[in-house]
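Lab meeting, item 3. Inverse folding demo.
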């Protein structure tokens, strides 16, 4: 029996507004009014939503001072995703961004936007938004592991990168627990939807037991494509065969998608705004 408390106690509680927004979306009761009322319960998130809406990326002639106007400008799902991101960005505390912080959010953002875009590319429009949030939170278990021992966890990450092994393998060896398991426990404790819990637990697995296979596979492939960006000799797609099957995809189509994705993200105003907000640029 693993001792989860030692790691879970390192992580602040996710702001209640994030859980409420996800429950609204999961119940399909989210509307302009319900989303606005929920966001207004958290002054900090409200202020940052308005700041993004008034940023150079989205600027209009008149200043936006109402959450309702921001929702109209950016859309229900975009605002919902921003709430989750803004809530998550505070989990590291208010200290200056560390190297791990920057790596974590750079990876999470790329995975989220790429999982979303992959679903759109393949015609799974109804799953794109869920894949985005799944990608955003798939590595959430790394945060309490890092906060419990920043120096030790950084060394663990460096070992995994040097050896080109999965983080979870190094975590299991050093800690007797991995970020997949911790992440699932974190999201479960916050009352988040099951598909997010399953994405945290099963992303990267060759065999998926969850019923949310399409979302998990989109997150897994986005995660995989992110790793390819930093390798001189990219891996082949043999480990992704199961996920190709779930998505109706093949290596040729994934390569086509991947080649265009970097340019797609450079032109994505929201992606660039999120990077700026998280101080990644």
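The presenter then showed the designed sequence:
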């Amino acid at each position: 029996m693993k001792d989860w408390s030692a790691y879970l106690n390192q992580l602040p509680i996710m702001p209640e507004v994030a859980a409420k927004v996800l429950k609204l979306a999961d119940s399909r009761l989210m509307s302009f009014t319900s989303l606005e009322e929920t966001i207004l319960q958290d002054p900090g998130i409200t202020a940052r939503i308005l700041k993004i809406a008034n940023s150079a990326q989205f600027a209009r002639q008149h200043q936006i001072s109402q959450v309702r106007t921001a929702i109209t400008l950016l859309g229900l799902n975009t605002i919902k995703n921003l709430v989750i991101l803004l809530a998550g960005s505070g989990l590291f505390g208010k200290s200056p961004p560390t190297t791990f912080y920057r790596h974590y959010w750079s990876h999470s953002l790329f995975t989220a936007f790429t999982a979303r875009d992959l679903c759109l590319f393949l015609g799974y429009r109804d799953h794109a938004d869920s894949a985005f949030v799944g990608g955003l939170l798939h590595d959430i278990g790394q945060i309490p592991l890092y906060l419990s021992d920043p120096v030790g966890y950084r060394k663990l990450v460096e070992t995994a990168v040097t050896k080109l092994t999965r983080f979870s393998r190094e975590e299991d060896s050093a800690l007797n627990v991995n970020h997949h398991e911790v992440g699932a426990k974190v999201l479960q404790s916050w009352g988040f939807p099951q598909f997010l819990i399953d994405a945290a637990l099963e992303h990267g697995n060759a065999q998926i037991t969850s019923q949310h296979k399409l979302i998990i596979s989109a997150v897994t492939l986005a995660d995989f494509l992110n790793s390819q960006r930093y390798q001189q000799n990219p891996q082949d797609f043999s480990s992704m065969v199961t996920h190709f099957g779930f998505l109706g995809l093949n290596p040729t189509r994934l390569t086509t998608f991947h080649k265009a994705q970097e340019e797609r993200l450079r032109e994505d105003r929201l992606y660039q705004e999120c990077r700026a907000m998280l101080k990644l640029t």
